[in-house]
Structures are given as C-alpha cells and as structure tokens.
Amino acid sequence: MATFTGAIGTGSKWLLDRIVGAIAATGINPNLLTFLGLVVNFGAAASFAVGNFRTGAIIIFIAGFLDMLDGQVARRQNRVTAFGAFYDSTLDRYADMALYMGLLVYYSVSGRTPYVVLAAVATAGSVMVSYARARAESLIPLCKVGFMERPERLVLLIIGGLFNRMAQVLWVIAVISTITVIHRIFYTWQETRAGRVLESVKSMWPVASDQRPAAGEEKRSDARLAASAPTSKS
Fold first, then answer.
1. What's the predicted TM-score (pTM) here?
2. What is the pLDDT along the chain (234 residues), one digit of tens a residue?
3. By the 8 A CB rule, do 156 and 162 touch?
4. Which of 75, 84, 113, 201 could form a disulfide with 197 if both were Cys (CB 3.0 to 4.6 A apart)?
5. How far is Cα 155 from Cα 169, in angstroms, rounded to an integer?
6. Residue 196: phi, psi to the nearest 5?
7. Is 140 left (phi over 0), alpha (psi -120 to 50) or beta?
C-alpha cells in the first residue's frame, strides 16, 4: 500500500513538474496566473450564489490548482519578488471573501436568515485568521499556531459543495476559525510578554510594566552604577 501511494505521489510530482515547466516556458507573468485564479474563484462564487454547490466545488479545485502554480512558475522563472508575495496574499483574501459572498447571496435569497448569519461569521473568522497572523508577524518572528488556515478552509468548502453539506461545513469553519484567532492572540501575548519580538519592534515599544524593575530596586541599581563609575581627574 505504501509503495502504491508513493508511486501516486511520484507520478503526481512528475506531472506537476512538467506542467510548471511548460507554463514557465511561455514566459507568462506569474502575477497573471494569480489574477486568473481570482477570476476562476469569482466563477465558483457565482455558482454558490445560485445554489450550484457541486459546480462551485469543482471550480474551487481548479482555482486552487492555479494558486499552486503561480508560486512554482515564479520560482522556475526566477521571478520571485516581495511584491509577488504581497499580491498573491491580497488576491487570496478577495477570493475567500467572494466565495462567502456567494453563499451569503444564496442564503439571503432563499430566506434562510440563520444561515446568512452563519456565513457572515465564517467570513469574519476566515479574514481574521489571516489578519491575526499578519499583524502578529509584524511584532514576533512567526505565528502559525492554530488549524483553520486557507488550505483547510478551501478543502472544507470543496467537501461541503461536493456532498451538499455546506451548512455543516460553515459551522466548522466559523467555530474553528474563531478558536484559531483566539489561539493566535494568546500566543502573541505570550511571545511579546516574554520579550521574543522583532528587533525593529524593541525600539518602538516600551518594556511591559510587569517587566520593569521596582522603584526601590531601580534606585539601588542607579546608586551601584554611580559608585562603580570612574572619577574624573581633570
């Protein structure tokens, strides 16, 4: 069984490598692939909006493939840039929100108000998972704790669409996304409290009040420094 799955993995890697090579050879800009992925996701959102969940799930799968290709094509063409990473991340957020907006439209038109609220909470949770990490990593080196990141959310939406279990999937996304955000807030608090912050941050923010020496200890420390300082002979 292990040999069989290993063969599948090897074959898939070989096929993907050939596809990436063929696309990279055309000289296409990787950012264009990122934009095409967004457009395809808009198609999935439109399918969700009219209740064609299975079609939407298939389109998300295709969009995910494009999303996987852009980075690999950029590396193959030696065109990896900081802007490309920013552009990819920004368009990913728009793609995520488009999918949930499609669901919001569907449940709103259907008159299913509780599911409108559920889809809205899932949307907020999804956006906040990404925002919490981005904001945390402007303070600390890394914040990848938690589970419900974008790949997991997309897989769940695909499952919900294929098996017509979208409401259940939205519950899972809403709850676990919220838990992930709380986990990231707590983790960032722990890291900043312990002083494990980026060097650029240390000069911007004062030391936490519970890490400052007591007033008496600060005075004694100043006295010791004064006593040990060399005297001037001028």
1. 0.79
2. 556 666 666 777 787 788 888 989 999 999 999 999 999 999 999 999 999 999 999 999 999 888 888 889 999 999 999 999 999 999 999 999 999 999 999 999 999 999 999 999 999 999 999 999 999 999 999 999 998 899 999 999 999 999 999 999 999 999 999 999 999 999 999 999 998 999 888 877 664 544 444 444 444 444 444 444 444 333
3. no
4. 201
5. 10
6. -90, 70
7. beta
Q: Would you report the helix, strand and coil content of the chain in percent, each value rounded to 5? A: 80, 0, 20
Count helices and strands (H / E) in the chain. 9, 0
Asked if 134 and 189 touch (Cβ cutoff 8 Å), the reply is no
CA distance 115 to 46: 18
Side-chain half-sphere CA neighbours of 7 within 13 A: 4
Instruction: Give the integer Cα–Cα distance in Å for 29 and 92.
Output: 17
Q: Which residue has the tokens 């907006």?
A: 101
The answer to whether 39 and 94 have CB atoms below 8 angstroms apart is no
Domain 16-198 has CATH 3.30.930.10: no
Nearest to 176 by CA among 116, 142, 126, 114: 126
